Please model this.
Amino acid sequence: MRYDQNDLSKDFISHAPGYWAADPPEDWDHHIWQLKNRVNSLSQIEEHLTLCEEERSGILLSGTKLALSVTPHFFNLIDEADPEDPIRRQVIPRIEETLYEETDMADPCGEDSHMPVPGLVHRYPDRVLFLVTDRCAAYCRYCTRSRVVSGAGEQELETDFEAAFRYLEEHTEIRDVLLSGGDPLLFSDQKLEKILSRLRSIPHIEFLRIGSRVPVFLPQRITPEFCQMLQKYHPLFLSIHVNHPRELTIEVKEGLERLANHGVPMGNQSVLLRGVNDDVETMRVLVHKLLMCRVRPYYLYQCDLIQGSSHLRAPASKGIEIIEGLRGHTSGYAIPQFVIDAPGGGGKVPVNPDYVIHRDEERILMRNYKGKTFEYPEPQTPASTALEPAALVQ
Ligand SMILES: *Cc1c(COP(=O)(O)O)cnc(C)c1O
Model:
């Protein structure tokens, strides 16, 4: 059994101080301390974990493509006794990252070709993705934007803020702006507020959202002051990124509750990852814990074809199986939409289990979550019997 069942506890547990304590202890709760004390070298990791050869070489090579960096908070979630630990797989580089499959891509979602101005991706008619920074609190080894994120690779994110704001002002069809990167929550409150207030000064922008893994990597950042600042820019949604139930600790739950209490609706985006969350039971515990944190599971992503991520990819059929194992069996609010971001720039495509067995003009034949079949007759309005509008008036 690859998964330790104790790992799938529904309990919210604090892992601090874990591998090391802050000195003085209250420093632990400060996000600046967490950022300054990030683990980013082989020697630091080896103080705490016994590495295998694949990891050791992966760490030595990580500086050339996607930097290695893990906050002490997140590092503490790693179970030293388990070489296959699902937290470890997400953040500790392996030599497999240097293996590029033929179908791998540097920009799997075709973002660079959809940027009308540097840093702004305009793919869908009414909304844009605004990449405001290339830095994160920690780096996910399967990052879809590793070509520009962390500062280690050859390509750089060169967001032109003034040009982006001008584009948004001129394009009145844009009603939804998604701030991402990198992680926008690495900005100071003041810097993020400048961006939010500028966006709010554009009348046709109705809806703001931020994509961030900071509530999970660095829950200490979710201060009351930060939440009060966000509250001024509603409607503002937050998309977080949790892949495994153990990531939802007491500290993370408290941060998420604080955000919810300040009126920030939250969704979660998980990436389907081999050996991390590619089974129904893990995902069931995860989505239930998310609801307990007042976060609605939003998307489950098929892992993008990012270069050097093939060892972390699970087949799409596994994603369908997971959705099938949830739908009907548990709360509808707990079920994310499984999507594949179409390689080359097609955007997100929903992929669902087949519940429709047959469909024609007269009926839909379908099956329910237990496999039982049912028929729904389509409305039939033959020309001879249809009511004329005039007949209704009389
Ligand atoms: C994911 C994404 C969005 C937002 O998509 P939703 O389905 O509305 O959440 C917008 N723009 C780009 C380029 C994206 O990749």
